[in-house]
Amino acid sequence: MDTIILSDWLGTRLERDAAEPMYRQVLRLVQHAILTGQLAPGTKLPSSRTLADDLDIARNTVLRVYDQLTAEGYVLSTTGSGTYVADTRPDTAAVRPRVFTRASEAGAPEESRAHRSLSTRGRRLIGRAGVAPKQWGAFMPGVPDVTEFPSRTWSRLQARLWKEANPDLLTYAPGGGYRPLRRALSDYLRVARSVKCSPDQIIITTGIHQSMDLAVRLLTDVGDRAWVEEPCYWGARSVLQSAGLELEPIPVDSEGLNPRELAQAAPHAPPRLAVVTPSHQYPLGMVMSLARRRTLLEYARQHDVWIVEDDYDSEFRYGSRPIASLQGLDDAGRVIYVGSLGKILYPGLRIGYMVAPEHLVDTFRTGVAELYREGQLMHQAVLAEFILGGYLTSHVRRMRALYGERRQMLIDAITSRFGDALPVMGDEAGLHLVLGLPDSADDRAVTAAAFEAGVIVRPLAAYYSSEEVARRGLLLGYACVPNDRIGPAFETLARVIEQHLSAGAMHAA
């Protein structure tokens, strides 16, 4: 392509009335011509004056384009000689054509190509992902009612802090997070959750996922074994498997996880890590008995096992006081306590915390700063003021009453429609309950049909390690559902359930 053709080529493609500046248009078009070979390596570009005259644009525009092309390596400029297209073609000796080992690979569908691009752990993560396409609505589990968040109070506290414009709140967070927040959280956790900790033991994170990820990265190696509850929270499973740990599911019963069962089966192969939800098992809702808590702690002490205690929504217990934490019983420094403010305030806050054993505090502080370069100090400062002002305690108290009311309304709707035919489980605490289904039911199919009908639920089977051992049921979150929507939304869900149960009965017959 010579000079005259370049000018003509550009002239037919420039849009004089476009919002995109002329400089950006010319630059983009010349780059495209070089990358596609329409301007071959070694081609001399016209002088800036000539190209500007031919295109009827300012010469400074062309000079700016040439300067940018030179800076990015598209062209080479030599004083007194001119501007030439650089040879940027791939080195054929370094880049060899891919050889397809199977005839079907070259024309494989896009989805299977993406699947093949993933690592083994990537395929495992995506294949068992539990994240939902919608995060709000009846009956989305684990979501608080964000419309009840005291936004005016929060805005007032935030405005005052922004007005002060403390530069220390606009930089990276120190290892462990904002100290006034850590002090406020340590006081709150001692009173509300019977956690034994000092402010120095608090590490601020973006939530339970990051807290677990940090603990796993610092305390385990690829191939180490981890105990998880069966069933368990899908997010914990994803974090552990993505780190290369081998998971060993331990069934839960009415007293929670039983450490004796697996310890007797494998006395010489203790795990490196155990992840538990002792105060409100997720998703079934039982409380780990005191005897099993003490057994697990003693086993961890004797075998150097780390325990990650996920205390995700234990503030919301109905009919009794919140159950004390497992960490409060730990005298050997084996429990890493993790929690989040998302379930209490609003999920988008993305502030969580972990309580590290005293001898690991410096290690965890360094780890969180090195891996994640934490920030959000302004949000942490607002949250500290929110807690110290007593607003968190009053908000939890108010939401506990509201969620308890909605919980009872949902239970009443279930009983009214199904009586005792479908059991209700895990309703003593938290933000959801489990509606049991017959073993013959396909809870995944019910979930998909309910979604099409405008109702969000989660299949209980998805929380198990395998379909063979999975119980059938639906997780129904009631916290984010307005009172007047609980009845109509459940009627819609009930019709879906009845259709599937009757179709299953007909198929069995």
UniProtKB/TrEMBL annotation:
It comes from the Bacteria. Keywords: DNA-binding, Pyridoxal phosphate, Transcription, Transcription regulation. It holds the Pfam family Aminotran_1_2. The keyword Transcription regulation applies. One of its GO terms (molecular function) is DNA-binding transcription factor activity. The keyword Transcription regulation applies. Residues 20-88 form the HTH gntR-type domain. CDD domains: AAT_like, WHTH_GntR. In the C-terminal section; belongs to the class-I pyridoxal-phosphate-dependent aminotransferase family. This is DNA-binding protein. It comes from Trinickia soli.
